[in-house]
Every structure is written in structure tokens, then in C-alpha cells.
Amino acid sequence: MIPQFTVEKLKNRKKKVKKVIKSLVTLAVWFFVVGIIVFLSYFIYLQRTIPDPETLISRKVGESTKIYDSTGTVLLYDIHGEEKRTIIPWEDITSYVKWATLASEDSDFYKHRGVDFNGIARAFLKNLMEGGISQGGSTITQQLVKKALLGDERASTFRLVTRKIKEIILTVEIERKYSKDELFWMYLNQIPYGSSAYGIEAASKTFFDKPTKDLTLNEAVVLASLPKAPTFYSPYGSHVEELVVRKNHTLSRMLDLGHITQEEYDQAKKEEVVFQPSVDKITAPHFVIMVREYLVSKYGEDAVEKNGLKVITTLDTELQKIAEEAVTKYSEINKEKYKATNAALVAINPKNGEVVAMVGSSNYFDIENEGNFNVTTAKRQPGSAFKPFAYAVAFQKGYPDGTIVFDTKTEFNPNCKPNALEEKDEFGLDCYHPENYDGRFRGPVTLRNALAQSLNVPSVKTLYLAGVEDTIKLAESMGISTLQDRSRFGLSLVLGGAEVRPIDLVSAYGVFANDGIRNPWNFIRKIESGSGEILEEQKLKPERVIDSSATRLVTDVLSDNNARSSVFGYSSSLYIPSREVAAKTGTTQENRDAWVVGYSPNIAVGVWTGNNKNESMTREGAGISASGPMWKEFMVKALEKYPFEGFQRPDPVFSNKIMLSGQYFDPDHEVHNILHYINRSQPAGSIPSNPLEDTQYINWEWSVRNYFGLSLPNLPN
User: Fold this and answer.
1) CA-CA distance, 259 to 266, in Å (whole number)?
2) Hey, which of 89, 153, 199, 419 has its CA 20 to 30 A from 660?
3) For the stretch 569-593, what's the b/e string if a residue is b when 16 or more beta carbons lie within 10 angstroms of its beta carbon?
């Protein structure tokens, strides 16, 4: 039996719980009532402020954003000076544009009532699965409201939520007030397409020089693909390939929705799009477009177009002029001599990482030949220009520059026979036995001569001694950003078996120029708002990423004119008599890319020559032939701006150990490969007790003894 005092206690507790619940319910009801009153009041206010259609499509642009050079006095570009807009009637807009826009932006436009909750749910789930914002759920009406009435500048989370609520309320009211065709007509005459073009007619005239009614299917779909991200997908920017991918996706959607036939789809997909040349006045266009894309990604299209930002960049207009003149001059020469139709140049100040000059292609305004494509920020194979990273690791690990490696025909796949001649052996294994650029083998060479003369076989051996993983880690720490997929890379890495961005490569060479201290490349000094508020300012974060001893040794080799003269001659394009400069060439397979990358303590410069579609140049257009004169002409003129500054000399590195000392005959007058005497991870340590444990030993040993005509070791089974 429960005691009486316990029963009373339970009854009192229940009364208190009921009282609390009643209070909470009452409070919730009051909150609900107040919320409804506030919501209705706000709704009534918005309802009274809805503009008529003519007001809705008359978008007023605020103060334009201006991009300046490093001095803040030379205007490079004005975004947007005057907006281009021509309002055209509904019937003058071709059906291709309407269908493409619906397929691209809102295929259920004529079914929903302004807000597509199913679309929002699909976008939310997709973004949740992909861990980012890859898809939006805004309808055409919502986009019209956002562009015409609210703007789409970046804001805090609270403001974004508030604006979203306001956007939905306005969308519902506008949908109630206007027909679907009227809303669609306003949208097509209002939406920004990029390059100051607002509305489909201005876009059609800007990009294709024709009225909207005359657009082909393919052209209409291209224009419909732009509003998603006008700056990113701009035909005058660096992402034309991505624009084509988006265009083809929209075509596929149109086919699925029944707007076009299979025949129309096939024809449009294979049809080449030819854009009108840009009429915008831009100084240093590739650089400016890079800056603009950055601004849009950080502050939003709307803020960049009308918030009056003042952007001080790092560009040196004097150096930019020198760069453009050099690229233009030698592009014409190389086109005739080497069948190379394009070239690019980027220059960086290694002391602070500032991009001081950038020419992304031979002629930015030659849209027909993809002149707007910025090679300096694209991926290209570097050829032998990657070699210094492997040698730098080897030097850090204790290999002197006088270390002997053998430039002899060598098979580097230990599963292939040492005397393999084909790319695949009899069992289908991939064999790897690279040759030097001239087909010759030089026997014993020092690391200094191997790097200076850009010898391939010794460089592959150096990479093996240094370690592929350690070389990748060093290259990444110095600024190379494209080596994430480790499974792709092996010993061919040192001959350019990976892709790098030219701007990253030049920045990494800048670490050598700056005695091992890295300043990541940057292109913004300061950004001010229209009211003068500083939104961001350059903050340098120098970091030592490589020992100064290894850096100085690499520089000493790359500036050693005597060491490279047997290959390049004493008066090559890599030599500037009155200045100290270090340089490295690079050529990829079948002469698709020709490089010269080099530096002084004041400036690091990279030149690339080739063809946008990866066609080969002539065999004579090797790195120094096609890119050397251009690199030297720019360097000579650029260095006139700077006082003379010499490189810091490396401390001499000596070793009494065979191979490391520059001697390769042992006390018994025998000749063996370096792995016979060296543990590759500890070169200064004791001689390996069983060198056969190294998987490369047999093949390396066979190649050395074969070169000297000595008795050969037994071949592996």
C-alpha cells in the first residue's frame, strides 16, 4: 500500500506539470498570433510596394567596380561602366531561347505557383549528399525577384534567411499578379548574361552580333547556360570548356523534355560555337578576368557590378607591356618556324609572391582561336622543368652535386628484363627505359652536369634516390597544387609525367630565388568598398619550405653556364652576361609543350609555347628554341627595373665516399652502379651489406657493366 504523503506528492507534481504545459501552450499561441500579425503586416506592406512590369525590368545599376594596377593609378578595367539592354517583345524571342532557359533553369515553371517546393527538396538532398552547394532550388520567378528587387550580394546567414523569406513572399504575390508569360518575358529581358549585357537581346548582340530571333538552337542554348554564373561561364573568360559542358547538358535536358528532336540535338552538339570578339577595353585581360572571377566568387555578382569596389592589384603595367610585346613578337616567329600558335608568360616577385605580369595567350581578343583561354592557370605537362625538385630533395638528403650517376641505357621496371627494348615485354608488362633528347648516353656524369644539361636517364635515377613521395611533398610545399592523385605518378614524374599550372611552377621556382622561403602567389593588394572601407588587404605569410643549403645548390647549378654549355652552348638564351640568372628548359613528348622557367633574386619568370589543342610543334621547337628567346628578351628588359643582386653561394659539399666523391672506380678497380655502394635513404651511411635487396639494383648494374663492356650479371628469370 502506497503511503498517503506519497500520493499527495504525486498529485501536486501532476498539477505543476499541467500548469507548466498550460503556460507553454498559452505562450506558443501568443507567439503564433503575434507571428501571424507580423507576417500579414509585412505581406500587406510588400503587396503595396510591388512595382509594375516596366519598373520591374528597369534595373538600376549602382557604382561600378574598378580594377587598378599596383600603383592604384592605372585603371585596368571598369565593371560595369554602362549596362547594355534592349527590351524586346515576347514574340521576338525565339522558342529556342524559351525552351533552353526552361530546361536550364526551371523546367516546371508553367506548373508551379512561383515556389517549387519539390525542387527545393531535391536541391537540398543533392547538396546534402555532395557536401556543398552544387544545386539551387530557385524558380525563374524567384530569380526575377532576386535580380530585379532584392539583389544577390553575399550576406550573413541571418540576412540570407530574412531575404529568402522576403523573396518567397514577393514571388507568391508577383505570381498572383502577373501571368506566366509576362513573368517569363520580364525574366528574359532582365537577367544578366555577363559582359554588361542585361536581357536576351543585349546578350545576343554582344556574343553573336545578331538579334534574338535569328539565334540558332546551339547559340540559344549557349546563352541560356550563362545566367547561372555569368562571370565563370563567360565566353571571354577561362572556362569556355565548362560552358560547352553546361550547354550540352542543357541540350540533353531539352531532348528529354521533348523540346527538340534527336536530329536537332545531334546537330547542335557537334556544331562549333563562334563568338564575337570582346569589345570591352581591358588592360592585361587574362589577369583582369582572373581578378574578376575572384571578386565574384568572394563578394557575388551583384556586389561586383554595383557596389563600387576599388581593387588595387599587384600588376606592374610596365612589366605587363614588356611581356605582351615579347609574347606577340615571338608568337609570330614561332608560328612560322615551329608551328606553335600560342604562348604564355607569367612573372612573379619571389620576395612577396606578387604576380607582376601575366599574358595568358598570344591574343586574348582572338576568340576564334581560344585566345581568351588563360594557359598560365591551366594544367600543362612541364617536361624537364620538373627536374629541379628531385635534385633539391637529393641535395637535402646529403647527395653532393659531384655525386656520380651513370647515363646509360637503363630499364627502370624491375619486372622487365634489363635489356628490354620495347615498351611492353613478352608478357605484356609496361617497361620503362627513357632516352635522352639527343639519343646519346654519356656514361658517368655528376648530378651537377646531369641537371644543368637536362639529361633524362640520370634524372630518373636521381628521382629514385630522392624518392618519388618526398619529391612530391617538396614540390607541393613549394606551391605545386596538382599532384594529389599519388597513384598516377612514378619515375616518369621527373620528365614531366604530371600536369602543373604554369603560375604554380613559376611560384615554386620563386622559392629557389628566395633562398628557400615561400611566398604564395597573390594578385590583390587591397580592396575598398564604395564608402572607403577596407574589405581586404594583402597579408604576406612567408614560410621556409626547403633548406637554404639545398636551394643555393640548385640555383648554383641552374646558373652554371659552363656546366650546361656542352648542350646549350655558351651564348644560349639562358645566359645574360650582365646579370645572375638561373633557368631550366622543359619539353614534353612529341614536342607539345616548350618551357623556359628561370629567375633572378628579384623576379621569377616562366614562358610556355605550344598549341591550345595540344598539337605537336616541329621537332626543332624544343624548350629553349621556342621559348628561350622570348624568356630572355623579357628578362633582360625586366631586370633593368631592378638593381643588381647576386645569388647567395652554397657552401662546398665534400665526401670521401665512392660515388659521392665524384669517383666511380672502387679500390679493386671495379665499376658498379651507385646502389652497390649507397643506401639511397642514407647516402652518407655504411655500404649496403646486400645491395640486391634494392629492386632497381640488377637493372642498374646490368646497364653499367654493359656500357663498359664488362661481364654481365645473370638476368632475372
Assistant:
1) 14
2) 419
3) eeebbbbbeebebbbbbbbbeebbb
Please tell me the distance from the alpha carbon of residue 590 to that of residue 610, in angstroms, as a whole number: 11
Distances (CA, A) of 16 to 13, 27, 30, 89: 5, 16, 21, 69
Backbone angles phi, psi at 290, to 5 degrees: -60, -45
CA-based end-to-end distance of the chain: 92
For the full predicted model, state whether its pTM sits above 0.70: yes
Pairing between β-strand 197-198 and β-strand 310-313 as defined by DSSP bridges:
unpaired
The three grid cell numbers given for residue 160, joined into one nine-digit string:
540570407
Q: Which element (helix H / strand E) includes 68? A: strand 65-68
Residue 47 corresponds to which cell in the numbers above?
503587396
Q: Is the CB of residue 314 less than 8 Å from the CB of residue 356?
A: yes
Q: What angle do CA 276, 198, 255 make, to 5 degrees?
A: 70
Q: What share of the chain is helix, strand, coil (3-state, %, to 5)?
A: 45, 10, 40
Q: Name beta bridge partners: 543.
A: 518
pLDDT tens across 271-321, in order?
A: 888 888 876 778 999 999 999 999 999 998 878 877 889 999 999 999 999
One-letter amino acid of 175: E
Residue that is written with C-alpha cell 606592374 in the block:
316
Q: Rounded CA gap, 346 and 604, in Å?
A: 8
Which grid cell sits at 23?
A: 503556460
What is the phi/psi pair of residue 457, to 5°?
Answer: -60, -50
Tell me how far apart the alpha carbons of residues 343 and 621 are, in angstroms, rounded to a whole number: 13
541 — phi, psi (to 5°)?
Answer: -130, 70
| Alpha-carbon gap, residue 413 to 116, rounded angstroms | 59
Cα atoms in the Cβ-side hemisphere of radius 13 Å centred on 544? 7
Amino acid letter for position 558: L
What span, in angstroms and rounded, lies between the C-alpha atoms of 107 and 383? 47
Residue 377 contacts residue 633 (beta carbons within 8 Å) = no
Length of the chain: 717
DSSP run (H or E) holding 389: helix 387-396
- As a whole number of angstroms, the distance between CA 656 and CA 672 comes to 17
